[in-house]
């Protein structure tokens, strides 16, 4: 291009206003030096102001580092950039669910505290929604707890069971909230990377099959300190749906070492190509050691509701309920009513079948765009994300990047360049790796297809302009 957009962004002060997030190594140095400065009156602008040491958990959990969502925030990108980075929808939840929230707001009870374990209507709706999918009928009093989003539910489970020094195995790339939630409780994350496949996906030219587990690596990750394995299927950001055989392998290891399994299944309704969503809790011996995570936000295109739930045996749900009671006390009442109405009516309305067909069509738009570009991607079996291999993207040697990008993976530069010069934003995948394995993530950017078809088509057309920057 004759004129690249970054210079105009700098002129508007966008680059200058961005706060730099250095590498994890630099973050440790930053947090240590900041703590020293805060406790050194000689370096304080006002020696009379109190100074306090920052808790080490913030450093261990990367909380002091500028996160990827802040770097690739709409405020830092061109105004007309199409946002396929963040996984939020640009269409509303179903009207019958929204009506239930409005009805609750018009009542007296609907504006007050819910029971700590969740409103009974919602817990009963969850029981009915799952039926016997867990191999049994659920007890809404002892085997279900409603939480303030799936993330808070997981945090409460870590609070209930993780002691300082306990190890928790997570698969890479991982949902970025796992790390701080574990670190804040003194736990240690042990990382097992999923491996990109070189095998072609069926019926396409460029796409590759889903990523795989190396079970030898998983077994080596288990130590006497291991307390839990965190599983995510369908997987964010890979789009992988774990097979029954893979889950049986994980279950065998969990049983051998008496481990809890946290099974994050928030994308349970988005499994494509006729594949089977297997709940690890249903495998022999696994119900008593598994916490299954669900989300109204993911089921009903309502991420702002912040309503999730956990399902499991009383021995796991009881302590987790005690923890969530002291973390948030209860989740908001009108949105619980909306979630309950959603679950009560979705099946009879054929909502999930229609939604799945719509997402398959949206997925197809991005896949077609990537196939035309002849850039490899991981075939998404579930969720609403696609990983695109951006290792062939090259930018001019004199291209200027903001301070927020320096010291981070190559994928951050590629994603920044694509967002600013092509006009489509994504999320660099190295953010979801530990330092040791970051090189795997540097080859990929995550694109979300939880957008309307028109938006996705416009994004696909823009992405074709990336050809001139490929090697």
UniProtKB/TrEMBL annotation:
Keyword ATP-binding: no
Coiled-coil stretches: none
Entry keywords, A to Z: Aminotransferase, Pyridoxal phosphate, Transferase
Signal peptide (from-to): none
Pfam family, one: Aminotran_1_2
Cellular component aspect of the GO annotation: mitochondrion
Residue ranges constituting the Aminotransferase class I/classII large domain according to the UniProt record: 80-462
Tagged with keyword Ribonucleoprotein: no
Molecular function as annotated in GO: kynurenine-oxoglutarate transaminase activity; pyridoxal phosphate binding
Cofactor (UniProt): pyridoxal 5'-phosphate
Family, per entry: Belongs to the class-I pyridoxal-phosphate-dependent aminotransferase family.
Name of this protein: Aminotransferase class I/classII large domain-containing protein
Species name: Ganoderma sinense ZZ0214-1
